[in-house]
């Protein structure tokens, strides 16, 4: 038995991939992603559509990449078609950012349970991303959902919760325990560095170093916890640095950093953490 790290890049993050604003064709994108050593490419159905997924698929397959489907279902039943498509594409799971989000935890519980039941019926695992403006919008509500639905699994993107709760540094022990409770239910992780005010920071700006350090610690905690829970299998880590307006821009409208270079930096950091914790 073996455990393997699989680092993915996001198609959304490649359109455009840097501050030039140039949108590359799908064959170029997939070639760049493969040549950089990524294992797969995530197709975000919130930023794209099913037609886009089918258009990029042959290029993903040609380059030997694994597709990962990110779903934004606007109704309970609408997830089913995405699950079927993801199974046909060969996605390891569907990353769900549910656009059905009742105002109460009590109202959200049956929605989560129906989606989990649907995933079992279709034979396609689901992970619920820790994401704003969806059913896991709030950290506290998500923790309540985890307590109520023990089989609920997460895809951890903690940038959303650092902004959502406006966490200050250093985190208190209580705040760290809240995030650790999420980490314990994460079956994959995503890479983006946030502060308490911005969801996506430039990695090499000196004023952001303390936030980079926070996220490196969260990623290390996440990868370590996953290894303790899994004797074998693949751990997916998705680099997802979004274009504007996720990426901050200057008065000229141009991005203030090169997101492709930053994605490669995050990839290297994650691979170094994995090598460290995997060494006997």
Automatic annotation (TrEMBL):
Top-level lineage group: Bacteria
Stored SUPFAM superfamilies: Xylose isomerase-like
InterPro entries: Xyl_isomerase-like_sf
Protein name in UniProt: Xylose isomerase
Originating species: Candidatus Rhodobacter oscarellae
């Amino acid at each position: 038995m073996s455990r393997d790290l699989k680092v993915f890049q996001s198609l959304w993050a490649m359109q455009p991939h840097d501050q030039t604003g140039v949108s590359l064709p799908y064959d170029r994108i997939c070639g760049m992603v493969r040549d950089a050593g990524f294992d797969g490419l995530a197709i975000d159905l919130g930023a794209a559509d099913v037609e886009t997924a089918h258009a990029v698929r042959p290029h993903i397959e040609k380059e030997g990449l694994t597709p990962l489907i990110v779903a934004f279902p606007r109704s309970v039943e609408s997830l089913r078609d995405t699950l079927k498509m993801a199974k046909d594409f060969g996605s390891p799971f569907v990353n769900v950012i549910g656009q059905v989000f009742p105002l109460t935890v009590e109202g959200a519980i049956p929605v989560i349970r129906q989606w989990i039941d649907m995933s079992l019926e279709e034979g396609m695992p689901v992970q619920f991303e820790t994401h704003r403006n969806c059913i896991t919008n709030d950290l506290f509500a998500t923790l309540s959902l985890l307590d109520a639905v023990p089989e609920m699994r997460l895809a951890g993107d903690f940038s959303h919760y650092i902004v959502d709760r406006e966490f200050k540094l250093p985190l208190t022990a209580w705040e760290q325990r809240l995030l650790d409770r999420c980490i314990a239910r994460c079956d994959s992780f995503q890479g983006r560095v946030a502060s308490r005010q911005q969801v996506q920071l430039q990695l090499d700006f000196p004023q952001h170093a303390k936030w980079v350090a926070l996220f490196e610690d969260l990623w290390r905690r996440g990868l370590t916890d996953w290894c303790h829970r899994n004797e074998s299998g693949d751990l997916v880590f998705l680099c997802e640095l979004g274009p504007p307006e996720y990426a901050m821009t200057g008065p000229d409208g141009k991005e203030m950093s090169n997101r492709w270079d930053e994605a490669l930096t995050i990839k290297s950091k994650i691979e170094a953490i994995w090598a460290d914790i995997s060494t006997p």
